Amino acid sequence: MNEMIMNSKSALTMSSLEISRLVESRHDNVKIAIDRLVARGVIHQPAMQDGIKASNGVTTSEYLVKKRDSYVVVAQLSPEFTARLVDRWQELEEQLAPQVPTNFATALQLAADQAKQLELAAPKVAFVENLVERHTLMTATQIAQKHGMSAVKLNRLLDELGGVYSKSVKRGRAFIQSFIDNGYGELKQTEHGHSQCLFSTAGEVWIHSKLVSEGVC
């Protein structure tokens, strides 16, 4: 059984049970040795995990020992088994190593598989990137509220001023391309798949300056 663990910080550890098997020693003796080394400050206090429940219903705790400290523990218990520990670490680390193509045909197949995965993921990525980002973009309603008016009134004023919405769109609203190119707004999709015009901070400033120049604010 693979007793090597990779935690959230990608630090490899080996359980005290695995160490006891390597050095052919009782697990409780290995844990005692670890406790003594920790008390002397020779190794760091290892994390713990619950082991496999025994037939009598008792679950024995196991230490999760880092690579460097595992060598110290084995040297303390049975120095003659150090080589076995080295071999075991190499075996376990190779199991986690990424697969490297050994020939040209394998490399081509790996590249094809990765390309296929990217192709399948592309629609999902595009959808997520196009979702509404309300923490950086604002609706007409949000901007209108800052000026003490409704979104309907603000949009009517913007229609009169021009340079914001496309007149070719009969149902709904869409920015003209120059408004988007100037960084004043973006056309996004809501979670329900509907198009929505959202204004950037620069767009809000542009609207405010236009309203001021027209004497609205």
UniProtKB/TrEMBL annotation:
GO terms for molecular function: DNA binding. The keyword Heme does not apply. Residues 116-210 form the Antirepressor protein C-terminal domain. Coiled coil: none annotated. It comes from the Bacteria. Keywords: DNA-binding. This is DNA-binding protein. The lineage of its organism: Bacteria, Pseudomonadati, Pseudomonadota, Gammaproteobacteria, Oceanospirillales.
